[in-house]
UniProtKB/TrEMBL annotation:
<keyword id="KW-0408">Iron</keyword>
<dbReference type="InterPro" id="IPR000192">
    <property type="entry name" value="Aminotrans_V_dom"/>
</dbReference>
<keyword id="KW-0663">Pyridoxal phosphate</keyword>
<keyword id="KW-0808">Transferase</keyword>
<keyword id="KW-0411">Iron-sulfur</keyword>
<dbReference type="GO" id="GO:0006520">
    <property type="term" value="P:amino acid metabolic process"/>
</dbReference>
<keyword id="KW-0535">Nitrogen fixation</keyword>
<dbReference type="InterPro" id="IPR015421">
    <property type="entry name" value="PyrdxlP-dep_Trfase_major"/>
</dbReference>
<comment type="similarity">
    <text>Belongs to the class-V pyridoxal-phosphate-dependent aminotransferase family. NifS/IscS subfamily.</text>
</comment>
<protein>
    <recommendedName>
        <fullName>Cysteine desulfurase</fullName>
        <ecNumber>2.8.1.7</ecNumber>
    </recommendedName>
</protein>
<dbReference type="InterPro" id="IPR015422">
    <property type="entry name" value="PyrdxlP-dep_Trfase_small"/>
</dbReference>
<feature type="compositionally biased region" description="Polar residues">
    <location>
        <begin position="394"/>
        <end position="405"/>
    </location>
</feature>
<dbReference type="InterPro" id="IPR020578">
    <property type="entry name" value="Aminotrans_V_PyrdxlP_BS"/>
</dbReference>
<comment type="function">
    <text>Catalyzes the removal of elemental sulfur atoms from cysteine to produce alanine. Seems to participate in the biosynthesis of the nitrogenase metalloclusters by providing the inorganic sulfur required for the Fe-S core formation.</text>
</comment>
<dbReference type="Pfam" id="PF00266">
    <property type="entry name" value="Aminotran_5"/>
</dbReference>
<dbReference type="InterPro" id="IPR015424">
    <property type="entry name" value="PyrdxlP-dep_Trfase"/>
</dbReference>
<dbReference type="GO" id="GO:0046872">
    <property type="term" value="F:metal ion binding"/>
</dbReference>
Length: 405
């Protein structure tokens, strides 16, 4: 069976050029970049090159503004915890109701354990931030604003440059989780007021377990991980040099092919969306109709619950994901869909440069019958489902943690 990956917001295939760039750093180039001798110096130069490649992708002013981390989650945690430390006279955080758990779980923890006040700004039915509520939450008590650049489920893009400017007016730091946006949207950080930005290698055809945090020159920063002096004292621990080199190459390729990839990927995404809307009644696209990642389609199917569609698609070799958190046999929409007041679970199809027209046509070939079959399925509340229904995959709770990457 041919496998079709339409779940690229979860993770992407590593580009073969990225793999080639990484290989020597597992073998001959095994040196520690902190060492004084030649083994170390060659590897230190490769780390510097990767920093420059990332600088170019996000439009940072200086390569030293980039610190390598283990990924998006660590970068998000490092940014928020540092801000609370350097802005110790301020005890509030402003974030959105639709952030990734890397931000929301940390905020809930800080609320509970440190008495930090967290403002979770609501969104509308397209996942757009409520700007009035945002403005109202901004006071001189706010240490940091953390609002994502683009949402991982809906693809809705937030106006982060404008939000950062407003945060500056009350002296708060501005961080953005740009894990889903980096490599897909053009960026020029030096022309914005964004202080910190998180990114992750595996979302842009780079390796897993590597990411970076951008910290603008002049912004005070306290390292999350204490130890040696690596990464200009911003992240202790011997560097993941193959990962760093791979991330650098992924960044270079993303920048080089961004326009072409986006044009093609958007065409495929729109073809799928239009095809579904035309062929299957009672379906609609969630997410902002205009300000949306070019690769993301999040589609609600009325009267179908939970993981049913992704499960049945996976049986014919198509990977996508659903917007339900299916825990303990109850079918709950994800926190993002709940924040959007969505009445229906939605299915996310997310594309990459490795997708083709044939992938879209295959989905359009099999999906109408799947939806028809599921809609013919006796409608019942989660509590009324039989064990057989659950086992047959309509609820994949054992494999889910309740959130979507
Ligand atoms: N933030 C967003 C918006 C994401 O989509 C993800 C990945 O799922 C993360 C953060 C976490 O990134 P990582 O998997 O590199 O820790």
């Amino acid at each position: 069976m041919r496998l079709i990956n339409l779940d690229n917001n979860a993770t992407t295939r590593v580009d073969p050029e990225v793999v080639q760039a990484m290989l020597p750093f597992f073998t001959d180039q095994f040196g520690n970049p902190s060492s004084m001798h030649s083994f170390g110096a060659a590897v230190a130069a490769a780390v510097r090159k990767a920093r420059l490649q990332l600088q170019a992708l996000i439009g940072a002013e200086l390569d030293q503004e980039i610190t390598f981390t283990s990924g998006g989650t660590e970068s998000d945690n490092a940014a928020i915890l540092s801000a609370l430390e350097v802005m110790s006279n301020r005890t509030e955080i402003v974030t959105s109701a639709v952030e990734h758990p890397a931000v929301l779980t940390l905020c809930a923890h800080l609320e509970k354990t440190r008495g930090v006040k967290v403002h979770r700004i609501p969104v509308d039915r397209h996942g757009r931030l409520d700007l009035d509520a945002y403005r109202a939450a901004l006071t001189p008590h706010v240490a940091i604003v953390s609002i994502m650049w683009a949402n991982n489920e809906t693809g809705t893009i937030f106006p982060v440059a404008k939000l950062a400017g407003l945060a500056k007016e009350v002296g708060a730091l501005f961080h953005t989780d740009a894990v889903q946006a980096v490599g897909k949207l053009p960026m020029d950080l030096k022309s914005t007021a964004i202080d910190m930005l998180s990114l992750s290698g595996h979302k842009l055809h780079g390796p897993k377990g590597i990411g970076a945090l951008y910290v603008r020159r002049g912004v005070r920063f306290r390292s999350l991980i204490k130890g040696g002096h690596q990464e200009h004292d911003r992240r202790a621990g011997t560097e993941n040099t193959p990962g760093i080199v791979g991330l650098g190459m992924a960044a270079e390729l993303a920048l080089k092919f961004m326009d072409d990839d986006n044009t093609r990927v958007k065409w495929l995404r729109d073809r799928l969306e239009n095809g579904i809307l035309q062929r299957i009644p009672n379906t609609f696209v969630t997410g902002d109709p205009l300000e949306r990642l070019p690769n993301t389609a999040n589609i609600a199917f009325e009267n179908i619950e939970g993981d049913a569609i992704p499960f049945l698609l996976s049986r014919v070799g198509i990977a996508c994901s659903s917007g339900s958190a299916c825990t303990s046999g109850s079918l709950e929409p994800s926190h993002v869909l709940r924040a959007m007041n969505a009445a229906h679970a939605a299915v996310r199809f997310s594309f990459s440069r490795y997708n083709s027209e044939a992938d879209v046509d295959r989905v359009l070939e099999v999906l109408p019958a799947i939806v028809e079959r599921l809609r013919g399925f006796p409608s019942s509340g989660p509590g009324e489902r039989s064990a057989e229904d659950l086992q047959s995959g309509l609820c994949l709770s054992s494999r889910r943690t309740g959130s979507r990457s």
